[in-house]
Amino acid sequence: MAARPHQQMVFINLAVKDVELSKKFFSEVGYALNPQFCDDETACVTVSDAIVLMLLQEEKFARFTVQPVADSTRSTEALICLSAESRRQVDELADRALAAGGSPAGEPSDMGFMYGRSFLDPDGHHFEVLWMDQSAVQG
């Protein structure tokens, strides 16, 4: 019997100004916090079995890089795109983010076979939520 291949995970580390506000925001969006890896300077947010957001207080984040920490309220450091199972799920996630204190990051995009919305979290990190009709994707 062949060994199961390793499932690679993605850990997205982001600097935040207020860890408690970030914990509240992402909990209200619908994601679980992993208390084993949360403290006064860190929020560990489980997006899926393979995706984890590590939200680090700016001072703690700065200890992991030799470059200056970006001010995500003034410039875009990354576009983080999360897949959704349906158009409805795109709307539900984006609506929860806006209700939790996020702000729109642009108009919805509807190409028929692909639909997306975007939002900024309280620190200005840019998140995209995207559904794509897999039958329209050429293999």
UniProtKB/TrEMBL annotation:
PROSITE patterns: VOC. Gene3D superfamilies: 2,3-Dihydroxybiphenyl 1,2-Dioxygenase, domain 1. SUPFAM superfamilies: Glyoxalase/Bleomycin resistance protein/Dihydroxybiphenyl dioxygenase. It holds the Pfam family Glyoxalase. Residues 8-132 form the VOC domain. This is VOC family protein.
